[in-house]
Design brief:
The chain has 420 residues and is of the alpha/beta class. The chain has four domains: 11-106, Alpha-helical ferredoxin (Fumarate Reductase Iron-sulfur Protein, Chain B, domain 2, Orthogonal Bundle); 109-161, no CATH class; 174-297, Rossmann fold (3-Layer(aba) Sandwich), CATH 3.40.50; 302-417, 3-Layer(aba) Sandwich (Rossmann fold), CATH 3.40.50. Helix content is 50%, strand content 8%. It contains 23 helices and nine strands. The protein has helices at residues 11-19, 32-37, 44-55, 67-70, 77-81, 88-102, 109-120, 122-137, 140-146, 149-152, 156-161, 193-196, 198-210, 226-230, 234-251, 261-277, 290-297, 318-323, 328-334, 358-361, 363-374, 388-400, 410-417, and strands at 174-175, 183-188, 213-216, 255-258, 286-289, 311-314, 341-344, 382-384, 406-408. The strands form two sheets. A five-stranded mixed sheet has the order 1-3-2-4-5, sandwiched between helices. Helix 16 (261-277) links the parallel strand 4 (255-258) and strand 5 (286-289). Helix 1 (11-19) packs antiparallel against helix 3 (44-55) and helix 13 (198-210) crosses helix 23 (410-417). The protein is globular and about 65 Å long. Bound molecules: iron/sulfur cluster (2 copies). The site of one iron/sulfur cluster (SF4) has 14 residues, from helix 2, helix 3 and helix 5. Residues 12-41, 62-86 form the 4Fe-4S ferredoxin-type domain. Keywords: 4Fe-4S, Iron, Iron-sulfur, Metal-binding, Oxidoreductase, Repeat. GO terms for molecular function: 4 iron, 4 sulfur cluster binding; glycolate dehydrogenase activity; metal ion binding. InterPro entries: 4Fe4S_Fe-S-bd (IPR017896), 4Fe4S_Fe_S_CS (IPR017900), Cys_rich_dom (IPR004017), Glc_ox_4Fe-4S (IPR012257), Helical_ferredxn (IPR009051).
Length: 420
């Protein structure tokens, strides 16, 4: 059986959910796009009114007004504070899928092709990143930027996001602990993370095996489908979810840890839905954010770490804070390092602007949201964040200001400080 995880639902159930909004506006002050524009159509209430108009056929699917839905970051800060518990994130995904299904004008075919290419992984994308790595080694992007070529080719924004690439490691199927085995976990690699942030994945493997876990890399795992889902390509997200479910089921591992909170939320949702629809037990496997896993397993103690007399500002990704509600885990873990000084990144209650592809499609707004966080920073050596998109966005902003603050995953910081 092939259970659809994100079908476009019957419109009556969507309208019923939309009716739960009593238009109180209590969510507006928590919405980053309303905060920077002050425009009602850029608020959750305004967007829900637009969705209402669309589903009730009072608005056409190609009305320019719907651009306000496109501007939504999907951060779900509104959902977290709504007294009527309106399921805003779900309504947004459903509405975007409906728009893509009803009007060709709404489809961004180029973006879909790019997402599919990255999501598929495999030899093409590996070759692409290998070539990028080579161009970086030859300093070609620096030369092209100096000559103004990147701006002419409209590649300057994308190039600004690329960290210094490392060749991707060839992952083993299993990593064994040196000492007694205390459990088995699967590691979800992520499509973007394994190409641009293998450092975090390698650090996770070293930390987990040091703690006694046998780390499995389930074969044939895919992209989590978050980019597709939030851009309204539900069918593509479903295909990816099915492949991941198959891969995790085959591995026989019950706990799958993910190092990117955005992937964790999408995977956890889609795997639960498939388990329910296909009649698998709820605990067939569990998807866990690695911070939460490490904290609840309670195997880390201060004496494992060398002191680090530095200031770390912790960024709360929306997926960790608003959806998983596990934002305290990185604070608790990093506090275990002796002498470290921990603070919150300013404006943690608002999205940093990365928001999937938003940082590429709406660069000015994305930069504005990011600025309020990083320009207020002083005397900070590291920003810790647990989501790859946020990490790339924050690091690009710091690089463009020639600010030497490092952006690292909490697991990478912990692993660096491990006493051997
Ligand atoms: S989404 Fe919730 S908080 Fe926002 S206007 Fe509607 S009912 Fe009020
Ligand atoms: S998801 Fe975020 S950006 Fe979108 S309406 Fe809600 S608070 Fe605003």
């Amino acid at each position: 059986m092939n259970a659809k995880t994100n079908p476009i639902e019957h419109k009556e159930s969507i309208k019923k959910e939309l009716d739960r909004c009593v238009m109180c506006g209590l969510c507006s002050d928590h919405c980053p796009t309303y905060k920077i524009t002050g425009v009602e159509a850029e608020s959750p209430r305004g967007r829900l009114a637009l969705m209402n108009g669309l589903w009730n056929k009072e608005l056409e699917a190609d009305t320019p007004l719907l651009k306000h839905l496109d501007h939504c970051l999907g951060c779900r800060a509104c959902e977290a504070v709504c007294p009527s518990q309106v399921n805003y994130g779900h309504l947004l995904d459903q509405t975007r899928a409906h728009l893509n299904a009803t009007s060709d004008k709404n489809k961004n075919k180029m973006a879909l092709r790019a997402m599919n290419l990255i999501a598929q992984g495999g030899s093409t994308i590996r070759l692409f990143f290998r070539l990028l790595w080579l161009t970086q080694r030859l300093k070609l992007p620096v030369i092209a930027r100096k000559m103004g070529l990147l701006r002419v080719l409209k590649l300057d924004r994308l190039e600004g996001y690329l960290p210094s690439l490392q060749p991707r490691p060839k992952w083993k199927a299993v990593y064994y602990p040196k000492n007694e085995c205390v459990g088995r976990v699967g590691l979800f690699l992520g499509c973007v993370a394994q190409e641009v942030d293998s450092q975090t994945l390698s650090a996770s493997i070293r930390l987990l095996t040091k703690l006694g876990y046998e780390v499995h890399i389930p074969r044939m795992q895919n992209c989590c489908g978050a980019l597709h889902l939030h851009a309204g390509y539900a069918e593509h997200a479903d295909d990816l979810a099915q492949k991941n479910h198959h891969s995790f089921s085959q591995s026989g591992i019950q706990t799958i840890v993910s190092v990117a909170s955005g992937c964790t939320t999408t995977l956890a949702d889609s795997m639960n839905t498939i388990n329910k629809k296909e009649g698998h037990a709820d605990d067939t496997f569990r998807i866990k954010d690695i911070n939460h896993f490490l904290l609840t397993e309670n195997r880390l103690t201060s004496d494992l770490f060398a002191p680090l007399a530095q200031n770390i500002a912790i960024h709360d990704p929306c997926s960790l804070r608003q959806i998983l509600k596990q934002q305290q885990a990185p604070y608790e873990l990093l506090k275990l390092i002796p002498e470290v000084r921990i603070s919150e990144l300013p404006g943690n209650q608002y999205c940093c602007g990365a928001a999937g592809t938003h940082m590429i499609t709406y660069p000015e707004k994305a930069d504005l949201l990011r600025s309020s966080k990083i320009q207020a920073l002083s005397n900070t050596q590291i920003i810790a964040t647990s989501n790859i998109g946020c990490a790339l966005h924050l690091a690009a902003g710091l690089r463009s200001r020639q600010n030497p603050i490092e952006v690292l995953h909490p697991v990478t910081i912990l692993e660096r400080q491990l006493r051997l």
